[in-house]
Amino acid sequence: MLYWSLMFLVIALVAGIFGFGGIASTATGIAQILFVIALVLFVVSLFTGFVRRNS
């Protein structure tokens, strides 16, 4: 999922450079959402790993 958020970030940057406002804002929004989801899943995974080690 982090891969997809980085791909949408690159698309948003390229679209922003060429001045396509609608495409850039859409791709940036998708990239932000995917990045937050990947970050939340990473934190949950870390927490689960720590809980299993301590039990």
Description:
The protein is mainly alpha-helical and 55 residues long. The chain has one domain (2-54). The chain has helices spanning 2-18, 21-54. Helix 1 (2-18) packs antiparallel against helix 2 (21-54). The longest helix is centred in the last third of the chain and has 34 residues, at 21-54. The radius of gyration is 16 Å and the shape is rod-shaped.
State the gist of this model.
The protein is mainly alpha-helical and about 55 residues long.
User: How can the largest sheet be summarized?
Assistant: none
Morphology: rod-shaped
The radius of gyration is 16 Å
Helix content: over 70%
Structural class: mainly alpha
Number of strands: 0
Q: How much of the residues is beta strand, in percent?
A: under 5%
Number of H- or I-type helical stretches: 2
Poorly predicted regions are: none
Total individual domains: 1
Query: Termini distance?
Result: 29 Å
Return the average pLDDT rounded to an integer.
82
Task: Give helix and strand order, one letter per element, not per position.
Answer: HH
Transmembrane segments: 7-24, 30-51
InterPro entries: DUF1328 (IPR009760)
Keywords: Cell membrane, Membrane, Transmembrane, Transmembrane helix
Protein name: UPF0391 membrane protein KQ910_16665
